[in-house]
Design a protein that fits this description.
α2 (320-334) runs antiparallel to α4 (369-377). A hairpin with a 4-residue loop joins β10 and β11 (159-173). The strands form two sheets. Strands 1, 3, 4, 6, 7, 12, 13, 14, 15, 16, 17 and 18 form a twelve-stranded mixed β-sheet that branches. Strands 2, 5, 8, 9, 10 and 11 form a six-stranded antiparallel β-sheet that branches. This protein has helices spanning 233-236, 320-334, 342-349, 369-377; strands at 19-20, 29-31, 37-47, 52-63, 68-77, 95-102, 105-106, 109-115, 133-134, 151-154, 159-173, 176-187, 189-191, 194-200, 213-232, 242-255, 258-277, 283-287. It is globular, with a radius of gyration of 23 Å. It has four helices and 18 strands.
Amino acid sequence: MATVAMMTLCVTFVRANDGVFYVNGNHLVPVQETSISLTKEVLTISLCDDGYASVDVQYELDNRGAMKTVVMGFEANAPYNDTVAFSPQGIHPYIADFTVCMNGEALTYMNAVVKSEYDVDCDFQPLDLKKWKAYGEVKMRDGEDLPHNALLYSQQTDSLTPFSYAYYFVARFLPGRNTVHHTYRYRMSYGVGRTFEVPYWLKPAMRWANKQIDDFTLRIKATNTAKHFFLADSLFSASSFIVTEGSGKVRKTKEWDDTCTEFTLRNGTVEWHAQNFSPHANMTIQSAERVNYDHFILGTFYDRSDAYMPGSYLLETDKISQRERILQNLPYAHRGYVFKNKKLQKYFSQFWWYMPDTSYQPSTADFTPREWKLVNELQ
Protein backbone atom coordinates (compact mmCIF):
# COMPACT_ATOMS: atom_id res chain seq x y z
CA MET A 1 0.00 0.00 0.00
CA ALA A 2 1.35 3.39 -0.93
CA THR A 3 2.20 5.68 1.96
CA VAL A 4 0.32 8.97 1.97
CA ALA A 5 1.60 11.80 4.17
CA MET A 6 -1.33 13.19 6.13
CA MET A 7 -1.87 16.16 8.41
CA THR A 8 -3.37 15.93 11.88
CA LEU A 9 -6.88 15.15 12.94
CA CYS A 10 -8.07 16.05 16.43
CA VAL A 11 -9.45 13.02 18.23
CA THR A 12 -11.15 12.91 21.63
CA PHE A 13 -12.61 9.83 23.30
CA VAL A 14 -12.62 9.02 26.99
CA ARG A 15 -12.18 5.31 27.59
CA ALA A 16 -13.28 3.41 30.66
CA ASN A 17 -12.78 -0.17 31.76
CA ASP A 18 -16.45 -0.73 32.65
CA GLY A 19 -17.73 -1.20 29.12
CA VAL A 20 -16.83 -2.19 25.59
CA PHE A 21 -15.93 0.39 22.96
CA TYR A 22 -16.22 -0.98 19.44
CA VAL A 23 -15.69 2.01 17.14
CA ASN A 24 -16.57 5.67 16.65
CA GLY A 25 -18.32 7.42 13.81
CA ASN A 26 -16.34 10.28 12.35
CA HIS A 27 -16.25 13.27 10.06
CA LEU A 28 -14.48 13.22 6.70
CA VAL A 29 -11.49 15.57 6.79
CA PRO A 30 -9.14 17.13 4.25
CA VAL A 31 -5.51 16.05 4.29
CA GLN A 32 -2.84 18.65 3.44
CA GLU A 33 -5.59 21.04 2.38
CA THR A 34 -7.00 24.20 3.99
CA SER A 35 -8.66 26.21 1.20
CA ILE A 36 -11.95 24.31 0.74
CA SER A 37 -14.94 25.26 2.90
CA LEU A 38 -17.66 23.03 4.28
CA THR A 39 -20.87 24.90 3.48
CA LYS A 40 -23.52 22.31 4.32
CA GLU A 41 -23.81 18.98 6.10
CA VAL A 42 -26.82 16.75 6.77
CA LEU A 43 -25.84 13.98 9.20
CA THR A 44 -28.36 11.17 9.69
CA ILE A 45 -27.72 8.49 12.33
CA SER A 46 -30.19 5.60 12.45
CA LEU A 47 -30.33 3.49 15.63
CA CYS A 48 -31.09 -0.10 14.65
CA ASP A 49 -32.08 -3.25 16.52
CA ASP A 50 -29.15 -5.31 15.21
CA GLY A 51 -26.66 -3.54 17.49
CA TYR A 52 -25.43 -1.24 14.72
CA ALA A 53 -25.88 2.45 13.93
CA SER A 54 -26.29 3.41 10.28
CA VAL A 55 -24.73 6.70 9.12
CA ASP A 56 -25.66 8.71 6.05
CA VAL A 57 -23.87 12.05 5.56
CA GLN A 58 -24.48 14.56 2.78
CA TYR A 59 -21.75 17.20 2.42
CA GLU A 60 -21.59 20.31 0.25
CA LEU A 61 -18.12 21.84 -0.10
CA ASP A 62 -17.01 25.02 -1.83
CA ASN A 63 -13.80 25.17 -3.86
CA ARG A 64 -13.22 28.82 -4.75
CA GLY A 65 -10.11 28.06 -6.75
CA ALA A 66 -9.24 25.94 -9.77
CA MET A 67 -9.84 22.20 -9.97
CA LYS A 68 -7.67 20.34 -7.47
CA THR A 69 -7.06 16.87 -6.11
CA VAL A 70 -7.28 16.42 -2.35
CA VAL A 71 -6.68 13.38 -0.14
CA MET A 72 -9.53 12.96 2.35
CA GLY A 73 -9.44 10.73 5.41
CA PHE A 74 -11.55 9.01 8.05
CA GLU A 75 -10.23 7.60 11.34
CA ALA A 76 -11.83 4.86 13.45
CA ASN A 77 -10.36 3.96 16.83
CA ALA A 78 -9.46 0.34 17.51
CA PRO A 79 -11.89 -1.62 19.71
CA TYR A 80 -11.33 -1.45 23.46
CA ASN A 81 -12.09 -4.21 26.00
CA ASP A 82 -12.94 -6.52 23.13
CA THR A 83 -11.14 -9.62 21.81
CA VAL A 84 -11.61 -9.23 18.06
CA ALA A 85 -8.53 -10.05 15.99
CA PHE A 86 -6.22 -7.29 14.80
CA SER A 87 -6.60 -6.40 11.10
CA PRO A 88 -3.19 -5.66 9.51
CA GLN A 89 -5.05 -4.65 6.34
CA GLY A 90 -6.45 -1.64 8.19
CA ILE A 91 -10.08 -2.70 7.77
CA HIS A 92 -12.03 -2.05 10.95
CA PRO A 93 -13.84 -5.19 12.18
CA TYR A 94 -16.89 -3.22 13.28
CA ILE A 95 -17.42 -0.96 10.26
CA ALA A 96 -19.45 -2.25 7.32
CA ASP A 97 -20.81 -0.98 4.01
CA PHE A 98 -18.36 1.94 3.83
CA THR A 99 -19.02 4.02 0.69
CA VAL A 100 -18.04 7.46 -0.60
CA CYS A 101 -19.60 9.10 -3.64
CA MET A 102 -18.36 12.48 -4.90
CA ASN A 103 -20.29 14.55 -7.46
CA GLY A 104 -22.24 11.42 -8.36
CA GLU A 105 -19.17 9.20 -8.82
CA ALA A 106 -18.23 6.34 -6.48
CA LEU A 107 -14.69 6.66 -5.10
CA THR A 108 -12.26 3.88 -4.27
CA TYR A 109 -10.75 4.04 -0.80
CA MET A 110 -7.60 2.59 0.79
CA ASN A 111 -6.96 1.39 4.34
CA ALA A 112 -4.06 1.65 6.74
CA VAL A 113 -3.17 1.17 10.42
CA VAL A 114 -2.11 4.46 12.01
CA LYS A 115 -0.87 5.60 15.41
CA SER A 116 -3.53 7.26 17.52
CA GLU A 117 -3.18 8.58 21.07
CA TYR A 118 -5.82 10.03 23.34
CA ASP A 119 -6.11 13.80 22.93
CA VAL A 120 -3.09 13.85 20.61
CA ASP A 121 -3.38 14.68 16.93
CA CYS A 122 -3.14 11.68 14.65
CA ASP A 123 -0.64 12.13 11.83
CA PHE A 124 -2.34 9.47 9.66
CA GLN A 125 1.06 8.05 8.70
CA PRO A 126 0.62 4.29 8.08
CA LEU A 127 2.59 2.26 10.62
CA ASP A 128 5.28 -0.16 9.48
CA LEU A 129 3.71 -3.46 10.54
CA LYS A 130 7.07 -5.21 10.17
CA LYS A 131 8.03 -3.32 13.33
CA TRP A 132 4.67 -3.23 15.12
CA LYS A 133 2.69 -6.33 16.12
CA ALA A 134 -0.67 -6.79 17.79
CA TYR A 135 -0.16 -6.79 21.53
CA GLY A 136 -1.94 -10.13 21.88
CA GLU A 137 0.63 -11.77 19.60
CA VAL A 138 3.53 -11.06 21.92
CA LYS A 139 4.25 -12.21 25.46
CA MET A 140 2.54 -9.91 27.95
CA ARG A 141 4.83 -8.47 30.56
CA ASP A 142 4.24 -9.01 34.31
CA GLY A 143 1.63 -6.83 35.95
CA GLU A 144 0.00 -5.64 32.74
CA ASP A 145 -3.73 -5.86 32.27
CA LEU A 146 -4.47 -4.00 29.06
CA PRO A 147 -6.77 -4.90 26.16
CA HIS A 148 -4.33 -6.37 23.63
CA ASN A 149 -6.38 -5.48 20.59
CA ALA A 150 -6.27 -1.72 21.32
CA LEU A 151 -2.46 -1.64 21.37
CA LEU A 152 0.48 -2.47 19.15
CA TYR A 153 3.88 -3.56 20.47
CA SER A 154 7.34 -2.89 19.05
CA GLN A 155 10.00 -5.36 20.13
CA GLN A 156 12.61 -3.09 18.57
CA THR A 157 11.86 -0.25 21.02
CA ASP A 158 10.03 -2.32 23.67
CA SER A 159 7.14 0.13 23.52
CA LEU A 160 3.37 0.13 23.14
CA THR A 161 1.17 2.43 21.07
CA PRO A 162 -2.60 2.75 20.63
CA PHE A 163 -3.74 2.69 17.04
CA SER A 164 -6.63 3.40 14.70
CA TYR A 165 -7.85 2.05 11.40
CA ALA A 166 -7.75 4.67 8.65
CA TYR A 167 -9.81 4.98 5.48
CA TYR A 168 -8.65 7.48 2.88
CA PHE A 169 -9.26 8.32 -0.75
CA VAL A 170 -8.39 10.79 -3.48
CA ALA A 171 -11.08 13.40 -4.18
CA ARG A 172 -11.19 15.59 -7.31
CA PHE A 173 -12.67 18.98 -6.41
CA LEU A 174 -14.20 20.96 -9.26
CA PRO A 175 -14.40 24.76 -9.06
CA GLY A 176 -17.41 25.87 -7.03
CA ARG A 177 -19.89 23.55 -5.32
CA ASN A 178 -19.00 19.88 -4.77
CA THR A 179 -21.10 17.16 -3.13
CA VAL A 180 -19.93 14.15 -1.14
CA HIS A 181 -22.25 11.36 0.00
CA HIS A 182 -20.78 9.12 2.70
CA THR A 183 -22.41 6.02 4.21
CA TYR A 184 -21.42 3.22 6.59
CA ARG A 185 -22.66 1.11 9.47
CA TYR A 186 -20.83 0.69 12.76
CA ARG A 187 -21.26 -1.37 15.90
CA MET A 188 -22.74 0.37 18.92
CA SER A 189 -20.63 0.30 22.08
CA TYR A 190 -22.01 -0.27 25.58
CA GLY A 191 -21.18 0.30 29.21
CA VAL A 192 -22.40 -0.39 32.73
CA GLY A 193 -26.06 0.65 32.80
CA ARG A 194 -25.99 1.46 29.08
CA THR A 195 -27.45 -0.89 26.51
CA PHE A 196 -25.84 1.21 23.79
CA GLU A 197 -23.48 4.13 23.23
CA VAL A 198 -22.93 5.67 19.81
CA PRO A 199 -19.85 7.95 19.82
CA TYR A 200 -19.50 10.32 16.87
CA TRP A 201 -16.64 12.78 16.38
CA LEU A 202 -17.73 16.21 15.18
CA LYS A 203 -14.63 18.26 16.05
CA PRO A 204 -12.77 17.24 12.86
CA ALA A 205 -15.18 19.49 10.93
CA MET A 206 -12.94 22.33 12.13
CA ARG A 207 -10.27 21.08 9.72
CA TRP A 208 -11.98 22.75 6.76
CA ALA A 209 -11.02 26.27 5.70
CA ASN A 210 -14.02 28.03 7.25
CA LYS A 211 -13.48 26.30 10.63
CA GLN A 212 -17.18 25.52 10.85
CA ILE A 213 -20.17 23.98 9.12
CA ASP A 214 -22.08 26.88 7.61
CA ASP A 215 -25.38 24.98 7.55
CA PHE A 216 -25.61 21.87 9.77
CA THR A 217 -28.47 19.43 10.31
CA LEU A 218 -28.38 16.44 12.67
CA ARG A 219 -31.05 13.77 12.31
CA ILE A 220 -31.38 10.80 14.68
CA LYS A 221 -33.77 8.09 13.60
CA ALA A 222 -35.39 5.03 15.16
CA THR A 223 -36.76 3.23 12.13
CA ASN A 224 -39.01 0.23 12.76
CA THR A 225 -38.04 0.26 16.42
CA ALA A 226 -38.33 2.23 19.66
CA LYS A 227 -35.32 3.93 21.26
CA HIS A 228 -34.86 5.88 24.47
CA PHE A 229 -31.65 7.93 24.65
CA PHE A 230 -30.05 11.25 25.50
CA LEU A 231 -27.39 13.73 24.43
CA ALA A 232 -25.33 16.06 26.60
CA ASP A 233 -26.14 19.75 26.17
CA SER A 234 -22.55 20.87 25.60
CA LEU A 235 -23.10 21.04 21.84
CA PHE A 236 -26.82 21.35 21.35
CA SER A 237 -28.16 23.84 23.89
CA ALA A 238 -28.38 26.74 21.41
CA SER A 239 -31.64 25.54 19.88
CA SER A 240 -34.15 22.78 20.41
CA PHE A 241 -34.71 19.44 18.74
CA ILE A 242 -37.89 18.87 16.75
CA VAL A 243 -39.61 15.55 16.05
CA THR A 244 -40.11 15.57 12.27
CA GLU A 245 -41.39 12.03 11.62
CA GLY A 246 -43.21 9.29 13.49
CA SER A 247 -43.80 9.32 17.23
CA GLY A 248 -41.42 10.98 19.64
CA LYS A 249 -40.93 13.25 22.62
CA VAL A 250 -38.07 15.48 23.76
CA ARG A 251 -37.35 17.03 27.14
CA LYS A 252 -34.56 18.54 29.20
CA THR A 253 -33.36 16.39 32.08
CA LYS A 254 -30.23 15.57 34.08
CA GLU A 255 -27.83 12.68 33.85
CA TRP A 256 -26.07 12.65 37.20
CA ASP A 257 -25.23 16.37 37.53
CA ASP A 258 -25.12 17.17 33.82
CA THR A 259 -27.97 18.76 31.93
CA CYS A 260 -28.91 16.80 28.85
CA THR A 261 -31.68 16.32 26.31
CA GLU A 262 -33.70 13.13 26.60
CA PHE A 263 -35.52 11.49 23.70
CA THR A 264 -38.01 8.72 23.15
CA LEU A 265 -38.72 7.74 19.55
CA ARG A 266 -40.88 5.10 17.96
CA ASN A 267 -40.41 4.74 14.22
CA GLY A 268 -39.54 8.41 14.28
CA THR A 269 -36.94 11.08 13.54
CA VAL A 270 -35.69 13.97 15.64
CA GLU A 271 -33.82 16.88 14.04
CA TRP A 272 -31.51 19.69 15.16
CA HIS A 273 -30.37 22.51 12.91
CA ALA A 274 -27.80 25.31 13.25
CA GLN A 275 -26.08 27.94 11.15
CA ASN A 276 -22.33 28.58 11.47
CA PHE A 277 -21.87 25.51 13.65
CA SER A 278 -18.37 25.19 15.14
CA PRO A 279 -18.33 21.94 17.13
CA HIS A 280 -16.00 22.35 20.11
CA ALA A 281 -16.69 18.82 21.34
CA ASN A 282 -17.68 15.40 20.09
CA MET A 283 -20.98 13.72 20.86
CA THR A 284 -22.20 10.37 22.16
CA ILE A 285 -25.75 9.13 21.83
CA GLN A 286 -26.40 7.13 25.00
CA SER A 287 -29.26 4.86 25.95
CA ALA A 288 -31.23 6.45 28.76
CA GLU A 289 -31.62 3.69 31.35
CA ARG A 290 -29.66 5.70 33.90
CA VAL A 291 -31.48 9.00 33.45
CA ASN A 292 -33.69 7.89 36.36
CA TYR A 293 -31.06 5.63 37.89
CA ASP A 294 -32.54 5.68 41.38
CA HIS A 295 -36.01 4.75 40.18
CA PHE A 296 -35.63 1.40 38.44
CA ILE A 297 -39.07 -0.15 38.64
CA LEU A 298 -40.96 -2.75 36.71
CA GLY A 299 -41.71 -1.44 33.26
CA THR A 300 -38.63 0.70 32.86
CA PHE A 301 -37.62 1.11 29.23
CA TYR A 302 -35.40 -1.64 27.84
CA ASP A 303 -33.65 -1.73 24.50
CA ARG A 304 -34.70 -4.44 22.07
CA SER A 305 -31.13 -5.11 20.92
CA ASP A 306 -29.77 -5.57 24.45
CA ALA A 307 -28.19 -8.91 25.32
CA TYR A 308 -29.78 -9.29 28.75
CA MET A 309 -33.41 -9.70 29.64
CA PRO A 310 -35.45 -6.98 31.35
CA GLY A 311 -36.28 -8.00 34.86
CA SER A 312 -32.76 -9.16 35.68
CA TYR A 313 -32.02 -5.81 37.33
CA LEU A 314 -35.55 -4.63 38.13
CA LEU A 315 -37.05 -4.45 41.58
CA GLU A 316 -38.54 -7.67 42.88
CA THR A 317 -42.10 -7.80 44.12
CA ASP A 318 -44.09 -10.22 46.23
CA LYS A 319 -46.69 -10.30 43.50
CA ILE A 320 -44.73 -12.45 41.05
CA SER A 321 -47.70 -12.94 38.75
CA GLN A 322 -48.10 -9.16 38.47
CA ARG A 323 -44.39 -8.76 37.78
CA GLU A 324 -44.46 -11.34 35.01
CA ARG A 325 -47.57 -9.83 33.50
CA ILE A 326 -45.91 -6.43 33.29
CA LEU A 327 -42.80 -7.87 31.68
CA GLN A 328 -44.88 -9.80 29.17
CA ASN A 329 -46.60 -6.60 28.11
CA LEU A 330 -43.48 -4.45 27.75
CA PRO A 331 -43.09 -5.15 24.00
CA TYR A 332 -46.68 -4.06 23.41
CA ALA A 333 -46.23 -0.93 25.53
CA HIS A 334 -43.18 0.00 23.47
CA ARG A 335 -45.35 -0.14 20.36
CA GLY A 336 -47.93 2.17 21.91
CA TYR A 337 -50.66 -0.35 22.61
CA VAL A 338 -53.57 1.15 24.54
CA PHE A 339 -54.38 -1.57 27.06
CA LYS A 340 -57.97 -2.56 27.68
CA ASN A 341 -56.92 -3.58 31.17
CA LYS A 342 -57.21 -0.34 33.14
CA LYS A 343 -54.54 -1.33 35.66
CA LEU A 344 -51.98 -2.04 32.93
CA GLN A 345 -52.89 1.17 31.11
CA LYS A 346 -52.49 3.22 34.28
CA TYR A 347 -49.22 1.48 35.05
CA PHE A 348 -47.52 2.13 31.71
CA SER A 349 -48.94 5.65 31.42
CA GLN A 350 -46.73 6.77 34.30
CA PHE A 351 -43.59 6.28 32.18
CA TRP A 352 -42.38 9.18 30.08
CA TRP A 353 -41.31 6.93 27.24
CA TYR A 354 -44.80 5.45 26.79
CA MET A 355 -46.53 6.95 23.73
CA PRO A 356 -50.05 5.56 23.21
CA ASP A 357 -51.10 4.78 19.64
CA THR A 358 -54.82 4.13 19.30
CA SER A 359 -54.32 2.71 15.80
CA TYR A 360 -51.92 -0.03 16.92
CA GLN A 361 -53.38 -3.53 16.92
CA PRO A 362 -51.42 -6.04 19.05
CA SER A 363 -49.25 -8.28 16.91
CA THR A 364 -46.07 -10.30 17.33
CA ALA A 365 -45.11 -10.00 13.65
CA ASP A 366 -42.19 -7.63 14.27
CA PHE A 367 -41.03 -9.04 17.61
CA THR A 368 -37.28 -9.48 17.98
CA PRO A 369 -35.96 -12.87 19.22
CA ARG A 370 -35.44 -11.51 22.71
CA GLU A 371 -39.00 -10.16 22.80
CA TRP A 372 -40.31 -13.57 21.81
CA LYS A 373 -38.25 -15.02 24.64
CA LEU A 374 -39.55 -12.43 27.10
CA VAL A 375 -43.17 -13.12 26.26
CA ASN A 376 -43.00 -16.89 25.93
CA GLU A 377 -40.74 -17.78 28.85
CA LEU A 378 -42.96 -15.99 31.33
CA GLN A 379 -46.12 -17.79 30.28
